[in-house]
Specification:
3 strands, single chain, mainly alpha, three-stranded antiparallel β-sheet
Amino acid sequence: MTWDPRETISKLRKDLQRLCKERAFIEGQLANVNMALNSLARGIQDKQEREEVLKEIEAARRKPAGLTECVSDFLRSTHDSMSANEVRTWLERQGFDLSEYSQPLATVSATLRRLASSGRVEATRQGRNVTYKWIGDR
C-alpha cells in the first residue's frame, strides 16, 4: 500500500474546517458569557468581589494584536460586504475591548477608510451607507 498525499491533505483539510468551526463556536460562547458576566458584575455590591469578577473577565478575553489587524482578519474571513457598524458588532462579540476608544464606531470607520485607501479593502457607497469588502494586499 502506498501513501497518497492527496488523501492525507483531504483529511487534514476536513479536520481544519471542523476545528475552525468549533473554535468559532467556542469563541462566540466565550464572548457571550463575557458580555453577560460583565453586565451582571456591575450589580455586585461588594467592591472586592466585583473587582475579582472583572479581573477574571479581563483575563479570559482574547488579546488581539490591534484593531487594524482584527478588522483585516474579519474582512478576509467573510466574503460579504460589511458596514462599519457590523464590523464593530463583530469585534465586540469577539471580545475586542473597544472601551478605550471614546467613539468606537468612528474609530472602526476610520480604520476601514484607511484600509480602503491602502487598496486592501473596497468601499462601496449606496446613498449614505458605506460597506467594505476585502480585496487583498496589493
